[in-house]
């Protein structure tokens, strides 16, 4: 184990994730798919179970004790999650099902109101489909255009190209904070500055960032920030949109129903203040509580030491990959986080993944919901190992032992 890991006691941390003790196909589980979803610590599993055992009721409505308890657990979680991303207050934190829904919310509620014929939304070629398709859907309705920002061979956003595009009619620059497919960490502060100088707004897709680095939305200078609970040790089905207060306040609702209204009559309806205006229907209360517990879990750790540990694991994988015959790595940005993406001897990534799975190694293969990026590199997909705080160098060694076997079997 490396020096950073030994001060962190990764082994004790791993013990908090019960699933990591599982055997898969007769082998200890080697979980290298945290960019798809992270595993959950006891603290999160227990918080959800305790909520259902002791506090479950619907929120905001009934005047009874359990409903009060559920409401304070739910709103308490909102406060924690808002503070976790550096929000000034919890009004700016809208619960969503995850990053995808958060981006759709902005596309429909902001874009639907503001975008006009000829306007442009700039997205990078690195983007996950969830930061492309919502914009395409909204653009098609209002005659706007989604324009890709080129990336370099290293997998970095070409800032010269962005500068050039920003001379045109761009209203929004929507880019990932960290790429799920290549691990590229984008220069988000600079992107925000360039966009604002050109009069455009900025949305960052933080799905792959919040687990790995301290995020402060105000310091990043963005207008919107979207993220998912399940990628930061929380449950699936919950995530959030953070938005600048004045922008959220001007945005109309995008879904109608209970909870989001002020008054309803057949003459028309009026709507709640932010954030409730964007939260129609019964929310994922237990999910919010679970995400609050994930934030407590992360806040209880030395985040700098975790980042150093994760970086050590990633750099170790890169080093081993560089020495491994037939392995071509994709994404060689100057700053990378979390993901190690490669093709082995030109073999179909699904075959490699299946043979690794037989050895208990779980990772993701295919296009990673980034088809334009795969087209850019003229490949159909990659094998992606992705890391979280519980991974070890020994697991990276297991990956390469597994890959050596795969290479022999398939050659
Ligand atoms: N953006 C990025 C960069 C992602 O990695 C993902 C999921 O893999 C998403 C968006 C979508 O997240 P979710 O499915 O949680 O909405």
Automatic annotation (TrEMBL):
<comment type="similarity">
    <text>Belongs to the class-V pyridoxal-phosphate-dependent aminotransferase family. Csd subfamily.</text>
</comment>
<dbReference type="GO" id="GO:0030170">
    <property type="term" value="F:pyridoxal phosphate binding"/>
</dbReference>
<dbReference type="InterPro" id="IPR015422">
    <property type="entry name" value="PyrdxlP-dep_Trfase_small"/>
</dbReference>
<dbReference type="InterPro" id="IPR010970">
    <property type="entry name" value="Cys_dSase_SufS"/>
</dbReference>
<dbReference type="InterPro" id="IPR020578">
    <property type="entry name" value="Aminotrans_V_PyrdxlP_BS"/>
</dbReference>
<dbReference type="InterPro" id="IPR015424">
    <property type="entry name" value="PyrdxlP-dep_Trfase"/>
</dbReference>
<keyword id="KW-0663">Pyridoxal phosphate</keyword>
<dbReference type="Pfam" id="PF00266">
    <property type="entry name" value="Aminotran_5"/>
</dbReference>
<protein>
    <recommendedName>
        <fullName>Cysteine desulfurase</fullName>
        <ecNumber>2.8.1.7</ecNumber>
    </recommendedName>
</protein>
<keyword id="KW-0808">Transferase</keyword>
<comment type="function">
    <text>Catalyzes the removal of elemental sulfur and selenium atoms from L-cysteine, L-cystine, L-selenocysteine, and L-selenocystine to produce L-alanine.</text>
</comment>
<dbReference type="InterPro" id="IPR016454">
    <property type="entry name" value="Cysteine_dSase"/>
</dbReference>
<dbReference type="InterPro" id="IPR000192">
    <property type="entry name" value="Aminotrans_V_dom"/>
</dbReference>
<feature type="domain" description="Aminotransferase class V">
    <location>
        <begin position="30"/>
        <end position="399"/>
    </location>
</feature>
<dbReference type="InterPro" id="IPR015421">
    <property type="entry name" value="PyrdxlP-dep_Trfase_major"/>
</dbReference>
<dbReference type="GO" id="GO:0031071">
    <property type="term" value="F:cysteine desulfurase activity"/>
</dbReference>
<dbReference type="GO" id="GO:0006534">
    <property type="term" value="P:cysteine metabolic process"/>
</dbReference>
């Amino acid at each position: 184990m490396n020096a950073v890991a030994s001060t962190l006691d990764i082994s004790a941390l791993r013990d908090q994730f019960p699933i990591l003790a599982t055997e898969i196909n007769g082998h200890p589980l080697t979980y290298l798919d945290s960019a798809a979803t992270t595993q959950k610590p006891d603290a999160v599993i227990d918080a959800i179970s305790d909520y259902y055992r002791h506090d479950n009721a619907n929120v905001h409505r009934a005047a009874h004790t359990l409903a009060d308890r559920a409401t304070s657990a739910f709103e308490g979680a909102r406060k924690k999650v808002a503070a976790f991303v550096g929000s000034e207050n919890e009004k700016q934190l809208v619960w969503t099902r995850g990053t995808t829904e958060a981006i759709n919310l902005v596309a429909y509620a902001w874009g639907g109101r503001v975008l006009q014929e000829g306007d442009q939304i700039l997205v990078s070629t690195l983007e996950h489909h969830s930061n492309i398709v919502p914009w395409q859907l909204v653009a098609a309705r209002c005659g706007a255009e989604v324009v890709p920002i080129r990336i370099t061979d290293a997998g970095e956003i070409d800032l010269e190209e962005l500068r050039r595009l920003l001379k045109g009619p761009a209203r929004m620059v929507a880019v990932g904070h960290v790429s799920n497919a290549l691990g590229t960490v984008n220069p988000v502060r600079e992107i925000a500055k360039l966009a604002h100088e050109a009069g455009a707004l900025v949305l960052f897709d933080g799905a792959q960032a919040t687990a790995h680095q301290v995020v402060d939305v105000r310091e990043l200078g963005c207008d919107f920030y979207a993220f998912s609970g399940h990628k930061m040790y929380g449950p699936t089905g919950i995530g959030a949109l953070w938005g600048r207060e004045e922008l959220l306040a001007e945005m109309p609702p995008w879904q109608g129903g209970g909870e989001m209204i002020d008054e309803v009559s057949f003459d028309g309806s009026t709507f709640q203040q932010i954030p409730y205006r964007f939260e129609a229907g019964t929310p994922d209360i237990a999910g919010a509580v679970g995400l609050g517990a994930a934030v407590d879990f992360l806040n209880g750790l030395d985040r700098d030491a975790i980042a150093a540990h994760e970086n050590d694991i990633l750099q170790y994988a890169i080093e081993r990959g560089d020495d491994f015959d037939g392995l071509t790595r994709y994404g060689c940005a100057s700053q990378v986080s979390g993901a190690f993406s490669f093709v082995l001897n030109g073999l179909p990534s699904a075959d490699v993944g299946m043979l690794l799975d037989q050895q208990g190694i779980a990772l993701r293969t295919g296009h990673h919901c980034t088809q334009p990026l795969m087209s850019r590199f003229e490949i159909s997909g990659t094998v992606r190992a992705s890391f979280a705080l519980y991974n070890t160098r020994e697991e990276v060694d297991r990956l390469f032992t597994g890959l050596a076997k795969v290479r022999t079997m398939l050659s």
